[in-house]
Each structure stands twice: as C-alpha cells, then as structure tokens.
Amino acid sequence: MLNQTQINEVMDRIAAMFPDAHCELNHANPLELTIAVVLSAQCTDQKVNQVTAKLFQKYKSPQDYISVPLSELEQDIRSIGLYRSKAKNIQQLCRILIDQYDGEVPREHEKLVELPGVGRKTANVVISNAFGVPAFAVDTHVERVSKRLGMANWKDTVLEVEKKLMRRIPREEWTISHHRLIFFGRYHCKAQNPNCSECPVLEFCREGKKRMKKLEMVNTKKIR
C-alpha cells in the first residue's frame, strides 16, 4: 500500500497528465445527467452520448419519459446494452420524481439511491457533477487504477475502495480526483494494455513494475 506522501505524488502526476479531466457524459441539467449515468451501466460513455444526442431532444422532462409507451422508449435506447431494464428504470424513476419531488432530481444522496437504476456510484456522479457536492464515484476504471497502484487492496470491495480514497484524498478534491483517475484508467492504464513503459507513476505501481519485469524477462529470453 502506498503511504500518504506517495499518494499525493501519484495524484499530482496524474493531474499533470489530465488537467482537463471532466465528466464525459453529455448533459445540460441534473435530469439528463441522471438518465445518462443510468444508461452508462456496462456501456461506454461514447455510446451513451450517441444515444442521448437524440434522446434529450425528444425527452425534456420526467413527464415526457412516462408519456410514451415503454416499448417506444426501449426502441429509443435499443442500441445500448440492457435497454429493456434501463427503459423500465427510467420510466419508474421519472414517475417517482413527479410524485415525490415535483419533477426535480433530489440533491440528497440517500434519496437518489432509492431511485430505480440509481446505485451508489450513480448517486455520487449526480451529486458531484450536477450539484457540486464533493463525492468519489468508483467505477471500473477508478477501482482498477486504485488497486494497481496500491491505493487499495486487491480484495477490497468497491465501497472499501471509495472509503479509502476519501480518507487519503482531501474532500475538496474528491470530484476532480475521480475524473482524473477515470481518464488515467480509460486512456493510459487500460485494463488489457496499460502503457506501463511510458507511465509517470510506474515507480509507485506494483502492477506496472510486475508487468515490466515480465516483459524484461521475455525480451532477455528472445535475445538468448
């Protein structure tokens, strides 16, 4: 596990790599962000943005989403994985927004996680990006990078990773650090082909050093 000084250095170097890290889900308001994050489960942000480009032109309010047959909404998001369950969740959460929150997305984390299709990660993304409340959403990229670097243990659950990052990173930096770790995992420390040979934090990365050692052994054998 990295100590606090090492974590600070790692985050500073990642910040230098991705100074403009941000939420890549296109949205103009809290409702659009909530819908986009629900759609993003097991799906790339790029694909979600392709679908929501037309979706958000057609549906402007929670009422719009529940005013069409479920089958129509399903067709509108058909190219996204799990579209049937996602369409059902979207209509159900929009009904709740109308019935309980005057058609507005609630700002409170505990209320958001009660909405269909909205888990802890989704709620963290919404409160941090839509309402400016510091939060640390842990997606697959954040979890992978945190464990590879040794900011969390390999067997830690997503919640345990989140709690460790929140303890080690200042609260005012939670949201931007979340985005930076996502960018680092999405564009540099990829799941299958991490760019270890050109990584500015390799000296701190237990996984990267192991991969480079194996590569060195393979190259040595080839030379022989």
Automatic annotation (TrEMBL):
InterPro entries per record: DNA_glycosylase, Endonuclease-III-like_CS2, Endonuclease3_FeS-loop_motif, HhH-GPD_domain, HhH_base_excis_C, HhH_motif, Nth
Catalytic activity: 2'-deoxyribonucleotide-(2'-deoxyribose 5'-phosphate)-2'-deoxyribonucleotide-DNA = a 3'-end 2'-deoxyribonucleotide-(2,3-dehydro-2,3-deoxyribose 5'-phosphate)-DNA + a 5'-end 5'-phospho-2'-deoxyribonucleoside-DNA + H(+)
PROSITE patterns listed in its UniProt record: ENDONUCLEASE_III_2
Gene3D superfamilies, per the entry: Helix-hairpin-Helix base-excision DNA repair enzymes (C-terminal), Hypothetical protein, domain 2
Enzyme Commission number(s) from the entry: 4.2.99.18
Pfam families in alphabetical order: EndIII_4Fe-2S, HHH, HhH-GPD
Binding site for [4Fe-4S] cluster: C189, C196, C199, C205
Domain HhH-GPD: 39-187
Keyword Iron attached: yes
Required co-factors: [4Fe-4S] cluster
Cofactor binding, per record: Binds 1 [4Fe-4S] cluster.
Enzyme class: lyase
Assigned keywords, A-Z: 4Fe-4S, DNA damage, DNA repair, DNA-binding, Endonuclease, Glycosidase, Hydrolase, Iron, Iron-sulfur, Lyase, Metal-binding, Nuclease
GO MF term list: class I DNA-(apurinic or apyrimidinic site) endonuclease activity
Family indicated by similarity: Belongs to the Nth/MutY family.
HAMAP family xref list: Nth (MF_00942)
Protein name per its UniProtKB record: Endonuclease III
